[in-house]
């Protein structure tokens, strides 16, 4: 069956697909795991009031009968689906999700995966998934690139003056944070999107500075 077969036909052949577990291996190293966890936790915190998205972290995307037959699984390191229900999933099964594919994919390059990520996966995401935006980043070498689907073909996303790449899907920039050498999110003004922990520390710092000002004025902040 062709990968573009309708969700209904696929569902007839594989009715219990929603129960399948992800078939992806563990992350290659601790630095890859830390980077993935940062991307997931930061965006979930930033969008904490929203219930209309799903983030997949090292989860298999099941998309065709032939894929299952040949065990040719594809699991992006990070993917985002917009305008869907925010709930726990064991994997992403396209025909159980109204035919929806990821809207954005990020692959974390490593020595063993870089060639596949730059070639086979890029072709799959462009030709079959038709994912609007595809990025890759190496936590080790800091290689970073992004592509946007234009007229059925991926075109490189041009960086701004800070070497950040704009994601229309996220409504945010992606860029390498200089101090940590990690891939982070930035808003339209270039400000770093804080994690929950960073936000808590900033709130604590603001509270301490306010208390100091009050004490200087002879006011007991307690």
TrEMBL record:
Q: Which domain of life is it from?
A: Bacteria
Instruction: Please tell me the species this chain comes from.
Output: Thiorhodovibrio winogradskyi
Q: What is this protein called?
A: Putative restriction endonuclease domain-containing protein
| Annotated Putative restriction endonuclease domain residues | 30-176
The record's section on PANTHER family has: SLR1095 PROTEIN (PTHR33352), SLR1612 PROTEIN (PTHR33352:SF3)
| InterPro entries in the record | Nuclease_put_TT1808 (IPR012296), Restrct_endonuc-II-like (IPR011335), Uma2 (IPR008538)
């Amino acid at each position: 069956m062709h990968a573009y077969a309708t969700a209904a036909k696929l569902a007839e052949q594989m009715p219990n697909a929603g129960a399948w577990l992800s078939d992806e291996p563990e992350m290659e190293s601790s630095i890859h795991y830390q980077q993935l966890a940062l991307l997931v936790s930061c965006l979930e915190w930033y969008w904490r009031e929203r219930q209309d998205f799903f983030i997949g972290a090292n989860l298999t995307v099941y998309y065709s009968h032939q894929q299952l037959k040949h065990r040719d699984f594809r699991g992006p390191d990070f993917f985002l689906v917009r305008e869907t229900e925010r709930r726990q999933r064991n994997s992403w099964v396209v025909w159980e999700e109204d035919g929806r594919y990821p809207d954005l994919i990020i692959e974390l390059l490593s020595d063993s995966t870089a060639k596949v990520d730059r070639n086979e996966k890029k072709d799959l995401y462009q030709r079959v998934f038709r994912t609007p935006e595809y990025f890759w980043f190496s936590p080790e070498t800091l290689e970073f690139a992004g592509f946007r689907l234009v007229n059925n073909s991926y075109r490189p996303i041009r960086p701004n003056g800070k070497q950040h790449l704009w994601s229309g899907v996220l409504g945010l920039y992606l860029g390498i944070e200089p101090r940590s050498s990690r891939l982070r999110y930035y808003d339209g003004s270039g400000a770093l999107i804080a994690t929950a922990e960073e936000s808590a520390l900033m709130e604590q710092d603001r509270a301490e500075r306010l208390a100091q000002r009050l004490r200087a004025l002879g006011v007991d902040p307690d």
